[in-house]
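FW: tagging you since you asked about this chain on Friday. Here's the raw sequence from the shared folder, copied in full. Didn't touch anything.
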Amino acid sequence: MRYFFAFIVLVFLSQSCIEPVKPEFQYIENVLFVEGLASTAQGTSFVSIRQASTEFGIYQTSFVEGASVRVENIDEGVETPFSQDLESYVAPTDFIVNPGQSYKLIVDLPDGRRIESNAESTADAVEINDVQINYESELYFDEELERNIPGHQMRVDFLDPENVPNYYYFTYRFIEDLKFCERCYDGILRDGSCYRPSGFRNFPDYYDYQCDTECWKIRFPESIILYDDQFSDGLNIENYYVDNLPLYTRTDALVELQLWTLTEEAYRYYKVLKDLVDNNIGFNAPPPAPLVGNMRNVLNDEEFVFGRFSVAAASTTAVFIERETLTDLPIEPILPVVFEPTLNSPYPPPATILAPCNESRYRTAIKPENWIDNE
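HL: got it, structure written out here
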């Protein structure tokens, strides 16, 4: 979700009849992209702010640092500030939105612009009844790696409420035990960063640095997973395919699956975005629908701001996966562990073999609630 912005330029495609030719893009400099989510589940709310630019003739989007980001509970008149974390802004760990209440996003940029969203109401959550996670040695074929990738396929059961339209978004946190928090290629770790000290030749290819405390790596889906009940109102949805979980490593893993209930406007926005990201605008496909968000510059109506702030009611379930007995080749290479020498080290002090488990959206030293220790 955080890096969807590179795909947004697709909305500038010509809306005339599609011919089977290479599409041409119109790239607009300094366009702002704001994407935000506030959820009823702790630890999932975030905001990402990026701006289009060119550097050495290359089109790109850059994270906007130093913004003041907050979510306002309109019913109670309370604002919650978000803090910068890597390339996003995240809510306090205990922040949640409440069903039935309305919220909006407020962003004050360093250059003085104020970006706000429309208000959005929180729906009711729909509970997950069951999750099936089944292992396959040949889950899918990866063209880049030129081999079959092993992993687990995740499916879900849930009961759709009847006589009311429901719009769903599936997401999850895929959590793996992390033993080594840093690997420095052609260098050593000092003051939290890898660097190569001067005057040394024949450096090892890399040094590994063990986490100085328990640590877990967190992965998120690489695709947008949606469902609506247009043809299944009130039915018991069984064995619905959610996503593939590739075997990145053979360490045990925990899946925290969330089923978000969205507003219709949010669902339609993400549906268009999914079509763009999934390249469903092939040569003979119909033109993509307009990607209409709900962000605006309150000080300048002439500036168009891409993106959307959405609120979601979330139900969560967790499944622990034991993988250490698996023998298939994982995606991440298995390399020998190489520690920096600490006794009579030739490198600048202080010599170390440890690295911190820096808390972020993608890494945590806080033991997940449903984690099982098998050691």
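FW: The longest helix spans residues 264-277.
HL: agreed, and Helices lie at 264-277.
FW: great, closing this out.
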